[in-house]
Specification:
By secondary structure, this protein is of the alpha+beta class. It has 7 helices and 6 strands; from the N terminus they run αααββββααββαα. Keywords: Signal.
């Protein structure tokens, strides 16, 4: 009798564990955390050029987009990750302007999209602080000793069910060197390292 009760208890705790770690439970958790604010979503001409809808029109249950704008070349790259239930997908678009402007659709068959989505959400991609607010905080006492003329800008869009979040940040590494303990700059760096580690 005791052995049977013990087995039933183990089964119960296993069911609770797996239900709490199911894709739907995780999506509900991140949905409750999603940092939404009154922003007018960027109207990306780039979306039309690569043949995808604006994120507000996306039918995916969960979607993460990172646009990388390279200022010196005027080109944009996009990594789009989506999840519906336990199925994940990735689309990567890379733009070049030599010898002429074109956008390539990169093969992502080797990419573990579900693992990547989970890693980004664990590192708070859905509730990052906008770079303009971070700059206000770190320069409230004195201005920065440099000006970044060229570099990269990043635009993040996260959609979970009916909530959409957008934020942006630029080349943050010089600021991180000056303020290595700044929480927001370190969060940018964590996200950057995750994307930088992607191999196709």
């Amino acid at each position: 009798m005791k052995k049977r009760i013990s087995k039933l208890l183990k089964l119960f705790f296993l069911l609770v564990f797996f239900s709490c770690n199911s894709p739907q439970e995780k999506i509900r958790k991140y949905y409750s955390e999603l940092n939404i604010k009154d922003v007018e979503l960027t109207n990306w001409n780039y979306d039309e050029r690569v043949g995808i809808p604006n994120i507000s029109q996306s039918e995916n249950e969960l979607e993460i987009r990172r646009y990388e704008k390279i200022l010196i070349s005027g080109t944009t790259n996009l990594i789009l990750l989506s999840q519906n239930g336990n199925k994940c997908n990735a689309q990567v678009f890379a733009e070049s302007n030599v010898p002429k402007i074109k956008i390539d659709n990169i093969n992502t068959s080797n990419l573990n999209s579900c693992e990547l989505i989970e890693s980004l959400l664990k590192n708070n991609i859905h509730r990052l602080t906008d770079f303009s607010d971070v700059l206000k905080e770190i320069t409230k006492d004195k201005p920065l000793p440099f000006t970044i003329m060229d570099g990269k800008s990043y635009y993040i869009q996260v959609k979970i069910k009916d909530k959409i979040y957008e934020m942006s940040y630029s080349d943050f590494q010089p600021h991180l060197e000056l303020f290595p303990k700044n929480k927001e700059l370190n969060e940018y760096n964590n996200i950057y390292e995750i994307y930088n580690g992607i191999t196709f």
